[in-house]
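Q: I'm writing up a methods section and want to include an example of the input and output format. Could you take the sequence below and give the corresponding predicted structure tokens, formatted cleanly so I can copy it straight into the document?
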Amino acid sequence: MQSILPIQLGSAEGTTHLPRTLTGNAFLAVGATVFVALCAHISFPLYFTPVPITVQTLAVILVGFTLGPSLGFSAMALYLAEGAMGLPVFSPHGPGGIAQLLGPTAGYLFSYPLAAAVAGGVVRTARLGRSQFPGAIVAGIAASLVIFSMGAGWTATLLHLSPSTAWHLGVAPFLPGEVFKVAAAAGAYTTLRRW
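A: Here is the clean output for your methods example:
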């Protein structure tokens, strides 16, 4: 599976590509983790749920779109490893480190590698018309389903919540924002593809 990167650099006659080597892939994966970490810090806590509103899911979906399923999965696994080591990559509204990977938002975090893989895989197979945008929307929705099901499921299990309460604490408050994030990720991906 090919990512939309390598990026073309230079003039039309002398374009070069970021090499698809182990080093090139490592550079892309580390860059993706930095992007997701920056988006995690755009965070707003909600008084009624342990799950904050962040821009992280937009970043995860966009990473999956641009890097593809394999490298997207690997980048998000690296992101979790960075957080487990104590690097400040998670939302600042949690304890950080391993504690954040065991707390109420852990299901969302652990869903990121799978969500990136789903986004990358679906966007490459879904062809709905001439534009990439509808396929990217479908891929973003599929990735969001993974994130919400794993995230709310973990929160419900950890806090012993009913399915209805888990829905109201871990899914419903985030749906309007998720619609915007999926559309923004699909638009950014479609724009990158045109370049």
